[in-house]
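can u pls check wat happens w/ magnesium ion
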Amino acid sequence: MSVPISIVGTVPNPKVLQGSPVFKTVAVVGPPNAGKTTLFNRLTGLRQKVGNFPGVTVEHHTGSFRLASGEEVALIDLPGVYSLNPKSEDEKVTVDVLNGVMPGADRPDAIILVLDSNNLNRHLVLAGRVIALGMPTLVLLNMADELHQQGGRVDVLPLARQLGTPVALVSAVTGEGLQAVSNFLVAPPQFPEPLELPIFGDPRHCREWAVRMGSEASYKRGATPEWTRRLDSIFLHKLWGGVIFAVVIVAVFQTIFSLGQPASDQLQKILDTVAIHLANLLPAGLINSLVVNGIWKGAGSVLVFLPQILLLFLVIGILEDSGYLARAAVISDKVMAKVGLNGKSFIPLLSAYGCAVPAIMATRTIENKRDRIATILIAPFMTCSARLPVYTMVIAAFIPNRPVIGPVVGTRAVAMLSLYVLGFAMAVVTAKALKSSILRSKDVAFIMELPPYRWPMWKSLGLRLMDRANAFLFRAGTVILGVSILLWALTYLPMHNGQPPEIADSAISKIGHFIEPAIRPLGFNWKIGVGLLSSFAAREVIIATMGTLHGVDPESHAMALQQALKSDLSPAGAIALLVFFAFAMQCMSTMAVVQRETNSWKWPILQFIYMTTVAYVAAFVAYRVTLLYWN
Ligand SMILES: Nc1nc2c(ncn2[C@@H]2O[C@H](COP(=O)(O)OP(=O)(O)OP(=O)(O)O)[C@@H](O)[C@H]2O)c(=O)[nH]1
Ligand SMILES: [Mg+2]
């Protein structure tokens, strides 16, 4: 059979064809971790999340790819699939988009199928299925750079002939071969029939077909890099694997403290200096107080935690991009099995250390419905980055820093780590209870494709951190600022003869005193009560609230926030506050995403009641017990 000229045209080094696009909407499909999002980002200039483990993308995203002619084609990045029979929610998204039944996404009129050229024998099975859909398809064999480096090879022409589609060997990272995409979009070849497609009902036949396609194309897979093998023999070792995992986690916290804290302190100094200048510049009175106490001491107090939060996301980013995360999921499988879950739940739970919202989205990769609900319900117990500022502030105020293990690990890092462990332990207990009662289900085998180790790409990490910083600043500038100003206004009411009241007579104090009886058993006074109330909007708001309340109070106006905090809390109260924050569900966005992902209000409401009750009872116990030892 002769090869249509345009198929040849998509293979190495053709000139870029000009013209109008033939397709309007093109879906990017492929197995997990094949590099679909990397390609999508490169073509559209967007920054969707990329990571070196299967299951990073769980929603569809649309972007536009501009051709040389200036015209645009809509590309849809999709979650990875191994087949077109969806087993999990993320796979369902892909199949729904392909079938044109996904609300908000146009039905695609062509497909770009991205396969990992280092895994062709397995990935070609999907090619058979996708080509059988009968839509115009371009097959990209991605990661050409790794294939060459590891001594692999593949001839695209025989493969194109066999599959009846254009095929190109590309690298989404280096850009090699990507002109094939534009060429396909402006001048798709006339599609000859594929020579032979597999019989889909028979998995063995499908696999044999894929291997045969590979050998027709003289496919030779690259050797697994020596260092991936060596690293795995340590990281997946029965004993050492677990030990290394523990060391990695402790190192993460120590880094956040030993590098993040000094950076935060510096930022605090800068903000304080600016506040003093501002206070001197503005005439005394309402505006001065609004700017200094409402905005600067309020929302500004939260800003100083930016370095720590970025460090946390940097570390999580390195774990994700290097490929270690997938190993950690394997190591955790045994532990997860003890509570009735499996390694699949580990990745969403780990990402909940950053934020519960994407973590709850990431549970879409969990096939078993009950496991998925259980993971959603326990994810907010993981210590998210919004708790970090609260923990840091209270720990720094109450716990002196002394060395514990040599000079590297100090008391504060240990205190912080204990809080992380506490949240985790409660998640374990809750999971066990759920999985042995209302969410009981049969064990599901845990299968996860282990990616090769890769060096994290600093540019992509940097861009991700910038996005994080923007999100944090946006939060500080909207919710946190809004609540700070509202609280500040409440300290100014009711006015008498144009003068603000004493703080003790203000509206905010009335609210605080109203709820005080409920929180006094936990060792909290009315100010902390107001802080707690406001923290249900977002956890960090408690810091802004305390900043504002102390700012307007003449007694504590000049003090640093940590010092002022000591007038509100006894050490036992401080411990109770930390415990309360470890367990309470104080996040509107999490409740909203749980509602959306479970499609019911039942779960978020149950979760809220459960977590808040646990937080209250545990804080009470912590207060009473600490009082016995530390006063
Ligand atoms: N060396 C190399 N690495 C690549 C290439 N394309 C992607 N990667 C890496 O492969 C990993 C997976 O990339 P993603 O783009 O997240 O893969 P995906 O197909 O979107 O994965 P899911 O969303 O999980 O289905 C990342 O670590 C990328 O940096 C490539 O051409 N060469
Ligand atoms: Mg992706």
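Residues 458-629 form one domain.
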